Amino acid sequence: MFRIRVSFVILLFACLTASGFPAEKPGVLSAAKEALHPAEQEKATDDPLGRSTPQGTVFGFMKSAAQGDYERALQYLDTKKTGLAAQKIIYALQILLDRGFSGKLALLSSKPEGALDDNLPLSKERIGTVQTASGGLDILLERIQRGKNPPIWVFSAETLTKVSDAEEEVDARGLAAYLPDFLLNNWFLWFPLGQWLAILLVIPLAFFLATLLTRLIASLLLFYSRRNFQAKGDQLVEGLIGPMRILLFAAAIWIISLFSRSILASAFWAYVAATLTTLGATWLSLRFIDVFFDVREKRLAAGSSEIISFMHLGRKLLKVLAVMSGALFIFFYIAGINLTAVIAGLGVGGIAVALAAQKTLENLFGGITVVSDESLHVGDLCRIGDYLGTVHAIGLRSTQLRTLARTIVSIPNGQLALMNLENLGKRDMIWFHHKLKLRYETTADQLRYLLAEIREVLYRHPKVESSSARVRLIGFGDSSLDLEVFAYVLETDYADFLTIQEDLLLRIMDIVRGSGSGFAFPAQTTYLATDPGLDAAKSGAAMETVRRWREQGEMPFPDFPPERISEMGGTIQYPPPDSALRDKRRK
């Protein structure tokens, strides 16, 4: 049901576009025509009767003749006849155009220069062919200039000399013969009411037939895809149903335009079919773009994912390009909007447009710069400005960051390209960096014991990069002796790092307690009589260990000897023997 509603919306758009197809504004001027008639291109004055274009001449004549305004209709003919003789020519030409037309009909040109690819002189235009008993009669327009007025298109004198005889040879009977006069003489936009009645009858019928044919083809495609692609092909076929219905409907309209005997109706159906074909082709292009990028992203997900973000950006750019191409084709080629006037308007208002689109273009190129530099990808943990979070999406306008509070922050790409960006997801190791503040009662030998023991832990731990690990006494604080612990943990996942960091901190706490010292408080301490003070036994043991080092010549200062460091590498059991994590790893 949803697809049918979408199709009706597209159909309505096509009809609205086609209903304006007799617009008398000139379209895109070709380079050849500009070279041949540069002076004429400078004249932008439209003829008050709409004769500036072949399209305006045909529809202006048909409307005037149908309403019985012979004086006005005569202005569209290249003839010197007047009175009854002129009325006969007008009536004969009206019959031929309304009931005698046959064969293919190209879209009536809405350009002042007419169609340039019809193998006719530049001053002539073929609008159709009438089949008679004696053969085909080409209905030609000729471009003439009267005095200093702008050039206009009129039915050629060559054609007018033959229309009376041709009118007698065609079957003038048609649907109009059975309709009341008010449906023929009253016009809405560019059609009599009788034509609109036929349109309202034909469109639902053609759409119904296109829907039935779409279901038949979709069933065959589903059967084929399920046999060859299992369930993966169902989604592709379902995505093609909408565009396929529009294209089949356009094909039905094309067929109707070929059988229509009225040049008005035939031109209308031709414009509707061209619009529907463009819409269907654009919609189909969007579907194939999605399929192509989905397949590519699935392949990249299994291997390298360095360009997944660029793929997302490329998908959006291609979709925008497809939609813009379809819109330009409809408005400039089918609807006949004057591209020269549009370009001139952009030139006049170019500064305003540039200022208005400045931020949009800045964000677009900023996004391309960020993605091409591969500074971040979807899923990376990043710090951008004051925000820390995971990259959620990289769009044309902005990049979305999911913060640790699970909110989404949108950062314009133009600003992102200028901001300091820290990609935590690209770390090869994680920094373990802490400062230990010890009580001032700690003796120098106790500090030596602490430094040596903590270094040994860092050197022996299998998850610590030992070559850069260090522990140093870095200063005397206001209320503490300050030690710096500097090392890199061999993990890139932050959750795993926290587990290892916890293990190291607990081991350091055990060493501090074992040395007989303790951590200082960043405040003044009032000692009471009940304060046990320092542990004399442990302090003596620590100092005894340092004394033994001195006697044996093994003082590990300023550091352990390299061979000793090599012997200690990875000798600590991690996780500890009594750790629940160790039991899980054994399993």
Helix-strand layout with pairing:
Layout (H helix, E strand, L loop, with lengths): L1 H18 L11 H6 L1 H4 L12 H13 L3 H5 L8 H17 L1 E2 L21 E9 L2 E10 L7 E4 L1 H13 L11 H5 L1 E2 L2 E2 H36 L3 H28 L3 H40 L5 H27 L4 H10 L1 H7 L1 H16 L7 E4 L2 E8 L3 E6 L4 E5 H4 L4 E3 L6 E9 L5 H17 L3 E13 L4 E9 L4 H21 L21 H17 L9 H7 L11 H7 L1
Antiparallel strand pairs: 1-2, 2-3, 3-4, 5-6, 7-8, 7-11, 8-9, 9-10, 12-14, 13-14
Helix pairs in contact: 1-10, 1-11, 4-6, 6-7, 9-10, 10-11, 11-12, 17-18, 17-19
Report on the architecture of this protein.
The protein is an alpha+beta fold. It folds into 4 domains: 23-189, no CATH class; 195-348; 356-426, Roll (SH3 type barrels), CATH 2.30.30; 430-586, Alpha-Beta Plaits, CATH 3.30.70. It is built from 21 helices and 14 strands. The strands form 4 sheets. Strands 10-9-8-7-11 form a 5-stranded antiparallel β-sheet. Strands 1-2-3-4 form a 4-stranded antiparallel β-sheet. A hairpin with a 2-residue loop joins strand 2 (124-132) and strand 3 (135-144). Helix 1 packs across helix 11 (263-302) and helix 9 runs antiparallel to helix 10. The longest helix is centred in the middle third of the chain and has 40 residues, at 263-302. It is rod-shaped and about 135 Å long. Mean pLDDT is 75; it is low at 1-6, 16-44 and 302-306.
